[in-house]
């Protein structure tokens, strides 16, 4: 539950959310109300960009808000380092994009989230028809095979490690 948001000297909105400290930059004109939460109306013309940065922390922020451009450059450097080149592929750009998406859906334990929309209804107005898949061994194996076909990359090792740990821990109870 959001308790309150106040505007900092730097123009960021700072507040507490469920015991976490939150800071949001990029929404200088945002308004806060108990009923709605944060509300902002923003018009962006074609070709324009506008960055929002949301920070969550267990501790109070000791420094000022980060610069969005610096964060973007850091993110781009990290992704460039993490996502391999698929030089032998006839669709290198698509292969890199697919690898980046799978990398982003892979947890620190090596399990790939089976559905980024988990717990949302599969179809509109369908009642309680929810997709509760989280990490499926079947999907993990398919992803591992796809990565293995392209070469030996870190995602392959992570997929094998994740499946091995689940089999050793849960054995016959795996569904």
Shape: extended
How are the strands of the biggest sheet laid out side by side?
1-2-3-6
> How many whole angstroms does the radius of gyration measure?
21 Å
The number of helices is 4
Task: Give the structural class.
Answer: alpha+beta
Largest sheet: 4 strands, antiparallel
Strand content: 15-25%
First-to-last CA distance = 36 Å
Helix content: 25-40%
Low-confidence spans: none
Task: Kindly report the average pLDDT value.
Answer: 84
The helix-strand sequence is EEEEEEHHHH
The beta-strand count equals: 6
Give descriptors for this structure.
175 residues; alpha+beta; two-stranded antiparallel ribbon; 4 helices; 34% helix; extended
